[in-house]
Amino acid sequence: MKNIKISPSILSADFSQLGKEISNLEKGGADLIHVDVMDGHFVPNLTIGPPVIKALRKYTKLPFDVHLMISPVHKYIKDFANAGSDIITIHPEATKDLKESIMHIKELNKKVGVSLNPNTKIDVIKSHLSNIDLVLIMSVFPGFGGQKFIPETIKKIKDLKEIKDKNNYIFDIEVDGGVNFLNSKDIINAGANILVSGTTIFKENNGDIKKNIETLKSV
Predict the structure, then answer these.
(1) Is pLDDT at 1 greater than 50 in this prediction?
(2) What is the mean pLDDT of the chain?
(3) Which residues are part of the catalytic machinery?
(4) Which of 26, 87, 85 is nearest to 54 (CA)?
(5) What is the pTM of this model?
(6) Tens digits of residue pLDDT in 173-219
(7) What mean pLDDT do residues 14-39 have?
(8) DSSP helix/strand/coil, 168
């Protein structure tokens, strides 16, 4: 039995009821809460910042899986750590020194994630994989929810899983973008163990969060 985790993206939640939505995700069996942070510069959308994360922290004991799509990212890492993030994921393109930013997150006693856009090669982070807790493979170009999964992502997941197994690395492989009931099995079989999903979790089966999480996990 594969240990698959679901990290629902609150980008698809009702923003006027975010605290309640997060509580419902925990009750529905979510393993983490995925928080998309966008700056309108690195990606073409604006979302939330550290004060909102801090305000939401009281609504759940689940880890906050915070994906920073902001540039330059390094100077904001501490603010997001202090706000209650448990995993801080950054993009290589958003920092002048990826190693320095990775170590900064570690020094703050947070788990380190690095995200790869669809057009970013695994080679960019190969030398850092021993220091990373999570690799987030984007299966759409970041910026907006509800996009369609890019099929070529499957090979990228397989390639990363092969590198992980060959070197006995321990990082999680997380996939975000267009994850749904039709492709979740292929994503899991390719090697991912954390699925990020927003639209599917909040909208399918008349918003039955528990059923949608269980369906995504089943292989």
Answers:
(1) no
(2) 95
(3) 36, 176
(4) 85
(5) 0.96
(6) 999 999 999 999 999 999 999 999 999 999 999 999 999 999 999 86
(7) 97
(8) coil
Sheet of strand 111-116: strand arrangement? 5-8, 194-197, 172-176, 134-138, 111-116, 87-90, 64-69, 33-38
* DSSP assignment letter at 139: S
User: Rounded to whole angstroms, what are the CA distances from 87 to 68, 108, 171, 195?
Assistant: 10, 11, 12, 15
Could you give the count of Cα atoms lying within 13 Å of 23 in the half-sphere of its Cβ?
Answer: 7
What is the DSSP pairing of strand 5-8 with strand 33-38? unpaired
Give SS3 for 34.
strand
Distance CA 110, CA 107 (A): 8
Q: What angle do CA 111, 64, 42 make, to 5 degrees?
A: 80
Q: Taking 80 as the threshold, does the pLDDT of residue 12 lie above it?
A: yes
174 phi, psi to nearest 5 deg = -110, 140
Q: Cis bond leading into 72, ω under 30°?
A: yes
Let me know the angle formed at the C-alpha of 64 by 173 and 130, rounded to the nearest 5 degrees. 35
